[in-house]
Specification:
5-stranded antiparallel beta sheet; elongated
């Protein structure tokens, strides 16, 4: 794999990582809208619940607010949040691995694809699990009203792990099927 290839992968992963961090911090995983005449919006994030009627956000889920009446809901929701945090930590380590591979010698770059591809897959796994947990809770929990739908952060989270897997697959295929970085011999 050439240095140019790693630079492209670095910038693509930076975009994916930015989506990961935005999805983690923005409280817009789910949305429930009450239409006119009493329009109101409820946004569910991994750590906050925001309501347009009061204009305030509060921690979510909280036992004091009755969010944890359903058995296992709070534990699963917190596991989804922890999964996205883990994906963010692994993403930071992936950036370090990419920078280290890009700044190393040609021989190390040729072997570094295994570490980088593995880190990309490792970044995608907890994000995908978090998405699955949130989707499961939306479909099975009575906490969410009928009409609750996925919002921007959920979509960004899905894009995060999909992009990471596509980059890992592309890197692996390019390395295994492509020519070496300097795959020529000097002519006399």
């Amino acid at each position: 794999m050439s240095l140019l290839g790693y630079v492209v992968i670095f910038f693509l992963f930076c975009c994916s990582y930015a989506l990961n961090l935005t999805a983690l911090l923005l409280p817009k995983w789910l949305i429930f809208v009450v239409p006119k005449p009493l329009y109101s919006e409820t946004n569910y994030g991994l750590f906050k619940l925001c309501q347009s009627v009061t204009g305030e956000c509060r921690p979510f889920p909280r036992e004091e607010e009755g969010d944890c009446t359903e058995e296992g809901f709070c534990q699963l929701w917190q596991a989804a949040g922890a999964g996205m945090i883990l994906a963010a930590v692994i993403g930071a380590l992936t950036l370090v691995a990419l920078l280290g591979t890009m700044c190393s010698s040609r021989r190390k770059r040729e072997r570094g694809w295994k570490l980088v591809a593995g880190m990309l897959v490792l970044h995608a796994i907890p994000a995908a699990i978090s998405m699955s947990v949130v989707a499961y809770l939306v479909n099975t929990s009575s906490i969410f009203y009928a009409g609750t739908r996925y919002d921007m952060s959920f979509i960004m989270g899905a894009a995060t792990w999909c992009i990471s897997l596509v980059i890992a697959l592309s890197l692996t295929l390019a390395t295994l099927l492509g020519p070496p970085e300097h795959g020529y011999e000097r002519l006399d």
